[in-house]
Design the sequence.
């Protein structure tokens, strides 16, 4: 893992969907690196958000990488459609599919980055058999399903365990992403753990200026030397 890679991925889940295209452009111009897309089906998580048509329409307004976090059961049924809609990165929950390895191969054959997600209560060792094939690990610092939740600090204890596994398996090139409750008050502390990609929703699209919010977040994303 290159600990100097520090990327901000605003989550549009917290945006104003009456003008989400405009807000994405504003975030891009303010220095956002990735657009995070929280896809929920009402089955894997108790919420429903948006699907492929919305992503396809948003693809027209931004050239930034689209990071689709699929909180859906049987993601293998839809992954090609999400890629066709414009997703450049796709992460899924291993307990939502039977054949994780097959799904990762399918994603990567489409020249898209593949990631797996660790929920707050999911042990790091569950990805031991898939770590050789993925591109990134998404650590949830809230229970998935809703935006605006409070950060769970105990989740940070997973990161040293994940780094040890990365060392043991020779996958130090993996990127580590974190999602849930990231804001201007905690991003510096979280960054010290060597996180690469920070997902922030309410902290970007909530109160105040998107431009100023992104500026403050990026200023506090420490680059490890």
Sequence:
């Amino acid at each position: 893992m290159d600990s100097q890679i520090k990327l901000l991925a605003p989550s549009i889940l917290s945006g104003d969907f009456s003008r989400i295209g405009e807000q994405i452009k504003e975030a891009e111009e303010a220095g956002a690196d990735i657009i995070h897309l929280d896809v929920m089906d009402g089955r894997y998580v108790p919420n429903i958000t948006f699907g492929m048509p919305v992503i396809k329409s948003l693809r027209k307004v931004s050239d930034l990488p689209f990071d689709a976090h699929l909180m859906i059961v049987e993601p293998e049924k839809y992954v090609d459609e999400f890629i066709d809609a414009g997703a450049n990165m796709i992460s899924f929950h291993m307990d939502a599919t039977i054949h994780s390895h097959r799904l990762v191969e399918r994603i990567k054959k489409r020249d898209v980055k593949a990631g797996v997600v660790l929920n707050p209560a999911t042990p790091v060792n569950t990805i031991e058999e898939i770590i050789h094939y993925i591109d990134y690990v998404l650590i949830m610092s809230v229970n998935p399903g809703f935006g605006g939740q409070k950060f769970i600090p105990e989740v940070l204890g997973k990161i040293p365990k994940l780094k040890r596994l990365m060392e043991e398996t020779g996958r130090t090139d993996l990127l580590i992403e974190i999602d849930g409750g990231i804001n201007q008050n905690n991003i510096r502390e979280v960054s010290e753990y060597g996180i690469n990609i920070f997902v922030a929703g309410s902290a970007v699209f909530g109160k105040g200026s998107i431009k100023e919010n992104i500026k403050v977040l990026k200023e506090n994303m420490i680059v490890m030397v």
Q: What stands out?
A: The longest strand covers residues 35-40. The domain at 7-219 is CATH 3.20.20.70 (TIM Barrel). The longest helix spans residues 20-30. The beta strands are 7-10, 35-40, 66-71, 89-93, 113-118, 136-140, 175-179, 197-200.
